[in-house]
Specification:
By secondary structure, the protein is of the alpha+beta class. The protein has a domain of 56 residues: Head domain of nucleotide exchange factor GrpE (Nucleotide Exchange Factor Grpe, Chain A, domain 2, Roll), CATH 2.30.22. It is 59% helix and 16% strand. The chain has four helices and six strands. The strands form two sheets. It has a three-stranded antiparallel sheet. The radius of gyration is 46 Å and the shape is elongated.
């Protein structure tokens, strides 16, 4: 008996038919329109994948460039701070040299020479601070008290000055541009 005859003897079930037709769908020859549509879809998919790959590559390059830029900017900022500190240190070392010269070979009896040396060092230190934009803030008596620039250490009655005027400076202040490093310490009239 042949295989076809054996299959003919077996009972036919609906599930077998569905399976048969499902397997036959892929075997049908697609028409030309379907092939063109499938080819167009493949072309579009290929272009989109290429564009995606190109954009991903650009994103990676931009990300790497940004990281390099951020690293260089931080290095430049660190370098600028270090350079400024070096400049200040060099200026202060010069002041220390003047102190050494003022103290070298001075007789204990020669107070005038020591005083001249200290005055020279004082002036050099002020000049060094000025080179870096730091200025001394001296307050003359009679100046109106300004809490942004002055620190009142005491209030005292005064017949010579009006209320809220500086009567005396106890310690000068120092400013860097418009920023107060230390306010001038003063006495203020009541």
């Amino acid at each position: 008996m042949s295989q076809q005859e054996e299959q003919a003897d077996e009972p036919f079930e609906i599930g077998d038919a569905e399976e048969y037709f499902a397997s036959q769908e892929g075997k049908e020859a697609p028409d030309a329109g379907e092939q063109e549509a499938e080819s167009a879809e493949q072309g579009l998919l290929s272009r989109l994948q290429a564009e995606r790959d190109e954009l991903e590559s650009k994103l990676l390059r931009v990300s790497a460039d940004y990281q390099n830029f951020a690293r260089r900017a931080q290095q430049n900022a660190d370098s600028a701070v270090e350079q400024k500190l070096m400049d200040i240190a060099r200026g202060l070392v010069t002041v220390l040299d003047h102190f050494d010269r003022a103290l070298e070979g001075q007789d204990k009896d020669n107070e005038t020479g020591v005083l001249q040396g200290v005055v020279m060092v004082h002036n050099e230190l002020l000049a060094t601070l000025n080179r870096f934009g730091i200025e001394r803030l001296d307050v003359d008596p009679g100046t109106e008290f300004d809490p942004n620039q002055h620190e009142a250490l005491m209030r005292q009655p005064s017949g010579d000055f009006e209320s809220n005027q500086v009567t005396m400076q106890m310690q000068p202040g120092y400013v860097l541009g418009d920023k107060i490093i230390r306010p001038a310490q003063v006495g203020v009239a009541e």
